[in-house]
Amino acid sequence: xxxxxxxxxxxxxxxxxxxxxxxxxxxxxxxxxxxxxxxxxxxxxxxxxxxxxxxxxxxxxxxxxxxxxxxxxxxxxxxxxxxxxxxxxxxxxxxxxxxxxxxxxxxxxxxxxxxxxxxxxxxxxxxxxxxxxxxxxxxxxxxxxxxxxxxxxxxxxxxxxxxxxxxxxxxxxxxxxxxxxxxxxxxxxxxxxxxxxxxxxxxxxxxxxxxxxxxxxxxxxxxxxxxxxxxxxxxxxxxxxxxxxxxxxxxxxxxxxxxxxxxxxxxxxxxxxxxxxxxxxxxxxxxxxxxxxxxxxxxxxxxxxxxxxxxxxxxxxxxxxxxxxxxxxxxxxxxxxxxxxxxxxxxxxxxxxxxxxxxxxxxxxxxxxxxxxxxxxxxxxxxxxxxxxxxxxxxxxxxx
Length: 400
Hints:
Blueprint: H1 2-14, H2 23-29, H3 34-61, H4 64-82, H5 88-119, H6 126-155, H7 158-176, H8 190-202, H9 204-224, H10 227-239, H11 247-267, H12 270-293, H13 297-325, H14 331-360, H15 362-385, H16 389-392, H17 395-399
Helix pairs in contact: 1-6, 1-7, 3-4, 3-5, 3-14, 4-5, 4-7, 5-14, 6-7, 6-11, 8-14, 9-12, 9-13, 9-14, 9-15, 11-13, 12-13, 12-15, 14-15
């Protein structure tokens, strides 16, 4: 399986960059407001809603590889625009172009990998191989995130943005070199294919699993959204410096709270992994709540670590379970439809959250939304014990 090494490298590079979540501080330094950043993020999520299904159909009707190559060719344009960021409209253009490129990649890259394995009769190894790829992604992301944060602090944000651009350009020839096997071109009409794929999402065993994912995804998004300026402000006050003077520390913190615990959450098996998976819908908003009640930098970092551990254990099991429940011939489109649904819900959340933060302040907004997601997560846990138990049980999670 010579192609596996190259595919692993491609996937790792796809989710690796030097800017990371400190990008929000770059936007603020360019004069943008929280509401503008939230609105741009909302339009970005809306872009996923608009682009995901057409790009997913390209993956099912043309080929997964073609779709990925198109996406990898578009994405660098969005990164290039960040180098010249001056106002909201440039940020919006960058976000939408990047989203268009990412949409061509998102539904097809995982389907491409699964189909290659299936063609060689090794789809049963998907979970462990996917775990290996995810762990490699986390390790690569950790090093580049820390490096990029210190580069931004010492030499400005332009250096990590330029390195991210070069990294994404290098992915195009790498993707071209990977074979595509086991792909059968779909011959049904575009409309019929989309409708049939959408019906798969409405099946109870898929619909409720997707709704469960949204509970965890949005609560984690709320913990992370504007986390860097929130923590940076706490750090700046305690260290007697400015937010710009904390960028290097924030890069290390991002690894501690996002990438390192994500690695652990993916790698964990057995009782601990199942426990983190089960408590995620309630634990993550609770951690957000506690980060506001007791604004201590070390405590907030610890909460971030726990939130990512829970979310990583949950989303890894979800990804494997979701693949198991959907038909192969519609896989890329269904994955894109799933991302589309998540995108439209996220668009509403980011738009509202940005304006609430602008008017109430970051701490009060975090508190308000944390209470909302805590109530929502608790409701899902109660439903899991009752009428939705058979739909929300994840077979792969039970295996550890």
